[in-house]
Amino acid sequence: MAGAPSPEQPIAVSLGDPAGVGPELIAAAWAAREEQGLAPFFAVGGAEVLRAAAASRRIDLPVVLIDSPAQAPAAFGTALPVLGSLDGAYRPGKPDEDGARLALASLSQAARLTVAGEAGAIVTGPIAKSHLAKVGFTQPGQTEFVADASGVAHSDAVMMLAGPNLRTVPLTVHCALSEVFARITHDLILRRTRVVAAALARDFGLERPRIAITGLNPHAGEDGRMGREEIEIIAPAIAALRAEGLDVSGPRPADALFAAHERKGYDVALCMYHDQALIPIKTLDFDAGVNVTLGLPIVRTSPDHGTAFGIAGQNIASPGAMIAALRMAGECAARRAGALAS
Asked: 210 pairs with which residues across the strands?
């Protein structure tokens, strides 16, 4: 059972793959902590990796080793707190199994600390799942990993992508497009929408969130001419959700839903498949997009981008999404602790 976060608890940050941009963005976020008003956070392992990554961006990064998360807030103002002795070599753009082991160990410990209530939230650095799979990572992604650590079924851990301009939720996530039609069910729409509504109220202060649900087919099926999923599955689910008192609209044609004038009419768009949700958020908010997991007893966020091995260590990657993930994690944790007004 996860411990209840308090406003004083720091955020645990996992390194991500040390060959990617995660370490340098953690360093850049710490350097911008005052300007961005970030809550205290600490990195789990990788002190030397972080120092080297900071140097690649010409950041003077003082690091202080801590023995427990409770020591992080006092140190945060003058140095980046790093928990423990986990470490490795910094080889940007050259992922290997040693780096994958460090990434997995950092993620595992950060999750354990957050579930135990020693950290107020977890922010996960970007990983390369194919590399982690070689060292024992069995989950489809970090969302499922953190769900397992929290004792939550994968089906109840819901991925939301959030940025300044848009929030989206993919109903189906990491599966082949050919599998999407079979996976979309009346029950799945009900369960995911309920999780989204409850989480937006609890963590984002939206008492009655407006949820737009897309269609699956072009033009939302156009009255059955382009598919019957809207008629037979999606519309009945929406009617059931409305009967429960949720503010749900749809099925909405996905090709028009993300225009600026349409976005004013809803708080989140529940989309039928991965790219239907991620293309608009990455188009509108690539450098400020946050991946947040809804439905957990803990707060988990992550920058909505990958390891970017091709630009790691070159002082090119923007820290905007990492900063946004840290800010959102702090705000959600504070709201759960009752320290942030809606």
From this structure: 247
